[in-house]
TrEMBL record:
One of its GO terms (molecular function) is oxidoreductase activity, acting on the aldehyde or oxo group of donors, NAD or NADP as acceptor. PANTHER family: ALDEHYDE DEHYDROGENASE-RELATED (PTHR11699). The active site is at 263. Belongs to the aldehyde dehydrogenase family. Signal peptide: none annotated. It holds the Pfam family Aldedh. The lineage of its organism: Bacteria, Pseudomonadati, Pseudomonadota, Alphaproteobacteria, Rhodobacterales. This is Sorbosone dehydrogenase. Residues 25-489 form the Aldehyde dehydrogenase domain. PROSITE patterns: ALDEHYDE_DEHYDR_GLU. It comes from Falsihalocynthiibacter arcticus. Keywords: Oxidoreductase.
């Protein structure tokens, strides 16, 4: 366990967060604000303007005007790329400050936050490379007097709604691609993590973004999120968050039939075959479940291990679990920090207690964790064995440092368990036989499959969910395609059209 000794100093001032509307930083018309306290030590971190209908209306109007007068969409790919690269450089230059607020608001370890901000800058650079490659098709085989041209155009005004678990990284999986495509945006960060999206807004202005192209409204899902999804002047909603809210957004957007892109929850399986390298697998499993304290859509939260090797593998996982440095998020040695809120802590604990009542056994952990000098919420590294597929902990998103262990005897049984349930975000397979890995990769229902690894990510590769884990993709060129509309232009060449009447 890691205490406060050697920690990075916490900010001494409260971060004052305002809305960014039409290029200006503004308070709410109501004058109301809301506070965010550190989940690790209770310090007041951020006081944010509390957005309501007036702020959403003004932000959407600004984004609509900025799109319709073409102040951004008429810029060349070269100009957009230059701007995105400038933002990437500013993110790098401000990495420590962004990481500090990310850690203070979310409870994640400072070293991890620094790595995420570095990764976010890389995504902005990748999107810059795409900005200069947008192109459609031409069809020159439609007959001698016709030419078909397929244009790619920006979809318009995009509402972006983001969660608290990777605030800066997730907005960076959306915004640079939308800007590369020529769209304008209104962003609503989670009410728990407003600060770093506001810092991003400051950097966008510093980099010279025209007023109204990106707007930020702070506040709660209702009314800010709801108004951003049902407003007729919004063309698309890009949402990352829970499947329950994702479904509410699909219902809300159906009234105006907007395009929707959804990155939702997961209950991601890793199947371990007897010929796997168990030491490699155990290390990746421990990383997969404790990274971000398990509060990760991609958490490898259930392992499905061959019956013959289950005891050995569990033993290795338990031994590694004891060594993971849990503790003060501001200490650079910490690998696992705080749980986002006390309500969430209680939810995690409830899943473990219910599983035990249903017959599962706790191999390690299973209770809140006390860290010296920290008043906030922490949860012990927890491995729950003897889980069966009918238990809630086997199919629902616990979103904490809690691993469920199920067993199998045949390939088909493993696949059936892996494909059980409503989610389909990611999946993994461990075997030294490439055919076993490939057979599993082809049959598992998931947006991403990792073979003999877990949770690697690249700006080049698309990410998203199957089944109830989402709609659409982020990252890669697929990520930018989401923000483009296709327009067909059919051109007659010469006066060759035969008259209808
Ligand atoms: P959440 O769904 O509670 O909230 C996400 C965002 O939606 C917040 O900004 C919230 O204020 C807003 N919101 C809430 N109700 C709304 C409504 N009715 N209309 C519009 N907006 C509304 O999710 P969370 O607790 O912030 O994040 C955790 C969830 O996010 C987990 O389920 C996790 O798996 C998922 N997630 C998915 C990915 C992915 O890429 N697939 C990545 C990170 C997190």
């Amino acid at each position: 366990m890691i205490s406060g000794a050697g920690a990075v100093p916490a900010p001494t001032d409260v971060f004052i967060a305002q809305h960014l509307i039409n290029g200006a930083w503004v308070s709410s018309a109501s004058g109301q604000t809301f506070d965010r306290f550190s989940p690790a030590n209770g310090q007041l971190v951020t006081q944010a303007a509390l957005g309501g209908e007036a702020e959403v209306e003004a932000a959407i109007a600004a984004a609509r005007t900025a799109f319709d007068d073409r102040r951004w969409s008429d810029t060349s790919g070269k100009e957009r790329a230059t701007f995105l690269l400038k933002v990437a450089d500013l993110i790098d230059a401000n990495r420590s400050r962004i990481a500090l607020y990310e850690t203070m608001e979310s409870g994640k370890p400072i070293a991890q936050a620094e790595a995420e901000i570095e990764g976010a800058a890389d995504i902005w650079r990748f999107a810059a490379s795409l900005a200069r490659t947008i192109h459609g098709d031409s069809h020159n085989t439609l007959g001698p007097d016709m030419l078909g041209v397929v244009l790619k155009e920006p979809i318009g005004v995009v509402s972006m709604i983001t969660p608290w678990n990777f605030p800066f990284l997730i907005v960076s999986q959306k915004l640079p691609f939308a800007l590369a495509a020529g769209c304008t945006a209104v962003i609503k960060p989670s009410e728990l993590t407003s600060a770093t999206t506001v810092i991003l807004g400051q950097l966008l202005i510093e980099a010279g973004l025209p007023a109204g192209v990106v707007n930020i409204v702070l506040g709660y899902g209702d009314p800010v999120g709801t108004n951003l999804t049902n407003h007729p002047d919004v063309d698309m909603v890009s949402f990352t968050g829970s499947t329950a809210v994702g479904k509410a957004i699909v219902a809300a957007t159906s009234k105006t039939l907007k395009k929707v892109s959804l990155e939702l929850g997961g209950k991601n399986p890793q199947v371990i075959f007897p010929d796997a390298d168990l030491d490699e697998a155990a290390d990746a499993i421990v990383f997969g479940i404790y990274f971000n304290a398990g509060q990760c859509c991609n958490s490898g939260s259930r392992i499905i291990v061959h019956h013959d090797i289950a005891a050995v593998l569990i033993q290795k996982i338990v031994e590694l679990s004891r060594k993971v440095p849990f503790g003060d998020p501001l200490n650079p040695s910490t690998k696992v920090g705080a749980i986002i809120s006390s309500q969430h802590q209680a939810k995690i604990d409830g899943y473990v207690k219910d599983a035990v009542k249903a017959g599962a056994t706790v191999a390690i952990g299973g209770a809140p964790l006390t860290i010296d000098g920290m008043s906030g919420e922490f949860y012990q590294p927890t491995v729950v064995a003897n889980v069966t597929k009918n238990m809630a902990i086997a199919s629902e998103e616990v979103f904490g440092p809690v691993l469920s262990v199920l067993t199998f005897t045949t390939f088909d049984e493993a696949l059936e368990i892996a494909n059980g349930g409503d989610y389909g975000l990611s999946a993994g397979v461990w075997s030294q036989d490439i055919s076993t890995c490939l057979k599993f990769a082809r049959r598992v229902q998931a947006g991403t499959v990792w073979t003999n690894t877990w949770m690697d990510g690249f700006a080049e590769l698309p990410f998203g969910g199957a089944k109830e884990s989402g709609l659409g993709r982020e990252l890669g060129h697929h990520g930018m395609d989401e923000y483009l509309e296709t327009k067909t232009v059919q051109m007659r060449i010469g006066k060759t059209r035969s008259r209808w009447v």
